[in-house]
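Board notes (copied after class):
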Amino acid sequence: MTALTATALAMFVCAGTALAQKPLMSNPLSTGLDTHLITPEDVLTIREVRELQLSPDGKQVAFRVREPSDPKVPRAPRTSNIWIVPTDGSERPRPRIPNLKNASSPRWSPDGRWLAFLSDRGESGADDPAATTQIYLLRNDAAKAERLTSVPGGVEDFAWSPDSKMVAFVARDQPTAKEQQRQSAGDDATEVDRNFKYSKLWVANLSDRKAVQVTKQDFEISELAWSPKGDEIALVVARTQKPEDSLLFSLVVVNRSTGEVARTLSTNVELTGGLRWSPDGRWITFYEGPPTKDFSAWVSVVAASGGGTVRPLMKDYSGTVIALEWTPDSKHLLAQGIEGTRQVLLTIDIATGTVRKLAEVNQTIWEFSFSTNGQTIVYNAQASESPSDIWVWTKDAQPRKISDFNPQTESWRLGKVREVEWKNSKDGLIRRGVLITPPGYKAGNLYPTIVNTHPGDTAWWVGLHAKWWAWGQLLASNGYVVFLPNTRGVTGEGWRLHATIADWGGMAFQDLMDGVDYLVEKKIADPNRLGIGGWSNGGFMTEYTITHTTRFKAAVAEAGHSDFFSLYGTSYLRSALRVLTPDSPYYNRKPYDDFSPITFIRNCRTPTLLIHGINDGGVPVGQAYEFYSGLKDVGVETEMVVYPREGHNIQEYAHQLDLQKRVVAWFNKYLKP
């Protein structure tokens, strides 16, 4: 790999917005194409591009494409395959091996000779229900893949050794022969918080295709990174699989041969995803957070040798880093971050912590992917009228798009997307969000307006808001103004403000209501036709809002948590709830009740549609049943829909289609004259 010279880095750093991808804020209708308003069926045709991996020589990008569901087989899972495309755009993207149904995690070997990936089908595409996810290898332009691993239970994660001769991977302990015997006899009772099957680190040699278990300790491995010498492997681990340990991560270094923990570098790892060992072997980056575990993190660096303290690198950064890689000289990091409602490409000076913006990137929630070899950057980007595609940026050229996976969106008549800004009336904090106005919008007219609340500790970006859980463009096509506020607690505003996500409702509710007042004041929103809805945290914010104000005439709450007291005892998320208060609710219930919408159910007057997956483990379906029962007792019109076989994410095509249609119909019933 060619080193990134100081001159080349300077060109990247100084480019700034001169090379920035220009945001496209509205759907152009000047193409002459016949257009139509977006439908729920349209939303489900989108192909998703993820997991970009740039080859070491910078000439190719490997990535995963997730195909839309087949309406003719509504219960079948969406298929995913590994694709490849030259970075110079000389050829169209193509599947590396056609007909794979479930392939992911493409990873180039450092010498560029191999492309590894995970699959449970191999090269044949045969439908084997007993198949497990294993590592497969592709040599250069070979037409067939070779299976590298055959471990029981399958592979969860993997990483190449620096010399390309080995692959480290994570696999889970399997039931013993005696346990399998009992299960076969129907003796399959599960003891809670006992008899865990822990993840273990393994190493496979390419020379003989043999895999050897490295670690013997009982801990949960969440992330791994090789040392440049290949003699050690850094791990982010949790002590156990118990929910109360799920936020207690440590950064350790193990000996690659013996699996023994050589040293512990930090016991205060907040999130996974930031573990990177510098090419010179001196440093390791990770996501550090406050000891209080306030759902917030920053990039820190620590000496790999263990001889020094952890140094916060971006603790004062006013955004959030979501992906990062070292430059070959080990002096800088190239990163992808969130700043407000936008994603950005950054360079970070390791010595000084200086952060410089390279470019802005349009993207929606959780739609990010980024890879670099130090001289070329590949990343996902989108516009407000088109889903994610692959962009390439080199130091001597403008960013260029090299894929077009969803040309059908050119015929969609979409709403115009723009950013809005307002102040919180209590503390004066500037808030930002996204506003989608319907096709044919006329300024000065009052429109029925729906607040689409954000689904978690994430920000909303200026991008295509069209998914089964993101209803922005679908509602806009049905004549609504859609408001997507970044209430406090979202990413993209620094770790301190992000930590306020634990202040359930609270000032986030004030942010939301002040944003609505702003739209009313600007003669955009009709104050008599306001709706609100969202998924997950958005379901909670919906329920919290309608139990604290009667201004909304219709609401849709999907997978919302309504009662923190019962949620604590029935969800694996109870460790996250302890961030709210150090006390168990069984000792101090008041803080849990104070933030629970069910506590204030008697105040609700808003007709509400409740939607839930019956197998949701994070937010059990009982949360919806409680709120539904409360609404009925209060005399509020309500409906509840439960989808079989579904968890927190609704997966099946027919369910996703039904959900979107119900959302539109519910708002039309109460907000349309």
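Comment from the instructor: Residues 316-406 form one domain. The longest helix spans residues 653-671.
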